[in-house]
Amino acid sequence: MYFRLLRATLFVLLVGSLGTLACDLSSLSSFGLAQASKPKVTIQSPSAGTQFREGDDVTIQSISTDNTGVVRVELLVDGATVRADAPPIATGQTSFTVAQKWKATAGTHTLSVRAFNASGGASDPALVSITVAAAEAPTVPIILPTVPLPLGSTPSSSASSASSLPTLPPSGATPVASATNRPPTRPPSSPTINAPPGIWAVAINVDPASAKRGVFVSFNVTFLNTTATPQGFRWFIKIYEPDARNSKGETSKLNSTFPPGTTTLQAPADWKINVSECTPYIARVFWEDPGSKQVTEFIKPDQAGPPAANFNVCP
What are phi and psi of 24, to 5 degrees? Predict the structure, then answer.
C-alpha cells in the first residue's frame, strides 16, 4: 500500500514538471528568443572562375529576397565594401535585383554580396571567385625606312630580300609606276571578327514590351551553345530606332559563360529614355572581342540574320 501511494505521488510530480517546462519554452518563444529571419541573396553573374582583364568594368548582378523587405545590398571585394545600393522603395522590397559595377584590378578576387532587411537582419554572403589578368603593355611597331632604287637599276642578290618591300619616292617627287619603282599600296583592312561556330543568339525578350519613359527596360536573351565546352563572352544590348544606323544607347557590357545547350541571361537593366510620344525601338545583341575591342552582332542558329526584338516607349 505504501509503494502504491509513493508511485502515484511521483507520477503527479512528473506531470506537473513537464507542464511547467512547456510553459517556459512557450514564454521564451514569445519573448522573441527564436532566431529572426534574414534575407537570402544569390549572385546571378558572373559565374565562378570567369576571367577578366585589368581595367574592365565588372558587373555583378544579384537578386535578394526577404519577407519584411530588402532595404540595402552591399558589394564586397576581398572582404572590403566597395558599393551599397538601395531599392527605389525606401521601406524595402521583398525581391530586389541589382547590377553593381567594380573596376577590375589584377589578381584573384572573391566577390561577395550581402542583403539587409528593414529589421536590420543581414543575409549570409553569396560568394564567387574571379580572376583578373594584368593589362599588357602596348607594343610600338618599328618602321624601318626604305631607300628607292634608281630607275632601270636591278637589285643585287644581297638586297633581294629588301627589294620585296615597297619603296617611297623622295619628298615632292611624283611616283612612277615601273618594275623597280611602284607607288606604295595600302594594306588590306583587318578581317571582321565573327562569333565562333556553334554560338548563337536564339531570341531577345523585352520586359515590358510597352515601356514608360524614364523607366529602366529589361532585356532577356536566349543563347545556344552547340559546342562541347562552356564559352565566355562579353555581351550587351544596343537599342535602335527603325531604319536608323546609329543606336539610341546600350546596356552595360556583361561577362558571362555560356554552358553547352540553351541558356537565358538578363542584360543589366540600366537603359532608359525620355520621349514626348510613343516611339518604336528595336533591341539587338552584340559581343565585344576582349583583345581588339571590336564589336560584332550575334546571329540566329539558322544563320538567317541577327535576332531582334521590337518594343515601344510611351510617355
Answer: -65, -40
For residue 170, give Cα distances in angstroms to 148, 155, 199, 262: 8, 18, 51, 61
Residue 9, classed as helix, strand or coil, is helix
pLDDT in tens, 40-95: 999 999 999 999 999 999 999 999 999 999 999 999 999 999 999 999 998 899 99
From CA 87, how far away is CA 249, in angstroms rounded? Answer: 24
The top-level CATH class assigned to 40-133 is mainly beta
Is the distance from CB of 295 to CB of 306 less than 8 angstroms? no
Q: Do domains 40-133 and 199-314 have the same CATH topology?
A: yes
Give me the mean pLDDT over the 1-29 stretch.
58
Amino acid letter at 41?
V
Whole-angstrom Cα distance, residue 12 to residue 166?
A: 112
Residue 290 to residues 30, 67, 231, 232, Cα–Cα distance (Å): 58, 41, 13, 10
- Work out whether strand 57-77 and strand 80-85 pair parallel, antiparallel, or are unpaired: antiparallel
The cell 527564436 sits on which residue? 34
Mean pLDDT confidence for 31-44: 74
Nearest to 204 by CA among 217, 186, 189, 213: 217
**Which CATH number does 199-314 carry?**
2.60.40.10
190 vs 228: which has the higher pLDDT: 228
Average pLDDT, the chain: 81
Mark residue 107 as left, alpha or beta (left: phi above 0; alpha: psi -120 to 50; beta: remaining).
left
Strand partners, 195: none
Strand partners for 237: 285
> Contact at 8 Å (CB) between 115 and 126?
no
- Whether residue 310 contacts residue 281, with contact meaning beta carbons closer than 8 Å, is answered with yes
Q: Where are the domains of the chain?
A: 40-133, 199-314
* pLDDT (tens digit per residue) in 244-301: 999 999 999 999 999 999 999 999 999 999 999 999 999 999 999 999 999 999 999 9
